[in-house]
Amino acid sequence: QVQLVESGGGLVQAGGSLRLSCAASGIIFSIKTMAWYRQVPGKRRVLVAGITSGGGTNYADSVKGRFTISRDNAKNTVYLQMNSLKPDDTAVYYCNAASPGSWFPFHSWGQGTQVTVSS
User: What is the pLDDT of residue 101?
Assistant: First the structure.
C-alpha cells in the first residue's frame, strides 16, 4: 500500500522560507519520478515541481528561481525548499509519484500540508 506523508507547512510572512518534506512508502522510491503539487480552494491541483530518478528537475514558471526540489533516496523522501514566498503561494501542498514528462500523478493523495503566506 502506497503512503505519502507531507509535512513542513505552516504560516510564514511574505519573503520567508519553508521546507516541505514528503515521506513515501510502499513504492520503490529510487526509481520513481516524484513531484510536488498544490491546490487552492475552488481550483484544480497543479504541478509545482518535479524530479526524476536521475535528478532532472522541472518547475512551474511561477516558482522558478524561488523553489528547489530535491530527493534523498536513502530516506525515501522528497523535499521542496521554498524561498521568497509570496501570498500567491498559499495552498495545500501534496506530493506524489508521477509519470516522467507528463507529470501525471500515479497514486492516491496524502493529506497534504498547508502553506499560508501572509502579506
Answer: 83
